[in-house]
Amino acid sequence: MSLSPLATAADPASETKILKWPEGKQAVFLLQFDDSAPSAIKNAIPELVKRNMVGTFYINPGNPPYKSLEKEWANPAPGIEYANHTYTHVGATSVDQLDQELAKCNAEIMARYPERKQPRLVSFGQPGGVPWTITAEEKKVLLAKYHLVERPPFKGYPFQFKNLEDMLALVDKALAKGDMEYLAFHGVGGDWLVTPMEMYIAILDKLQANQDKIWITDPVSWHQYVTERTGAEVKTLSSDQDQITVQLTSPADPAFYDLPLTLSTTVPANWQEVQVKQGSTETKVAVKDGLVQYEAIPGTEPISIRASARK
Questions:
Q1: How many domains does one find in the chain?
Q2: How do residues 173-205 score in pLDDT, each as one tens digit?
Q3: Are residues 192 and 254 in the same domain?
Q4: What is the reported pTM?
């Protein structure tokens, strides 16, 4: 049973489906920041941390702006993701040059998250305003070599958007379509290509007001979820009045695509609470309207849903 990016997959026997977005959220939004601008440290990141929001920062560790605040960049706060924007932001006029730029930037990113597995997927954003003469195919080969996932094209102020209203409308657009939208920034409240602080705060406030409906995440996690969900299958292995067991599989490579998917399973009418177990992970989940919603990793152990409280 194949699953398109805009659909869900269900096994009629198990009445289990894969939800389009984690936790049953309605839409997705990505916040991205380029060039290691000092205002990212001074202005952008503190506002994200204050709201427990995720932001992705495309860094150039070999450039003066990064080096001027190297100690501050050294320990990313929870929710702050670093991404590859090349090491020095000088462009790419040969394959060897880009290879070194990507490798050195990746090494810096990996060093900032020593607890994470390697290799792993990292987001890539091509720097603008610099010479770039290598071909798309040459770039594609190097991105694959370093497990880099290219982000969507740059979209932000003051290029594609000239006012706050149009940027805020992106949030409504994501909700209306049930899809992903995003904004990219350079300077925030300072530096270059500046998004004024009041505009930035208004965007974060709009997102925060809709956090129950919007999955605010990073480009890699969004990419992983869509990739795993596409072509995923879920089927019932067994089902009775005490326990339901299902199997979730996906064709995506589990070495790089191990983000949990959110599943929803119909359970007997008299179940009030369940224990959901997959491998060594076990979670207590309440039943709501005859459904239990939980997370599972494709291609690993079967998932057991066992009644722990009944009406």
A1: 2
A2: 999 999 999 999 999 999 999 999 999 999 999
A3: no
A4: 0.94
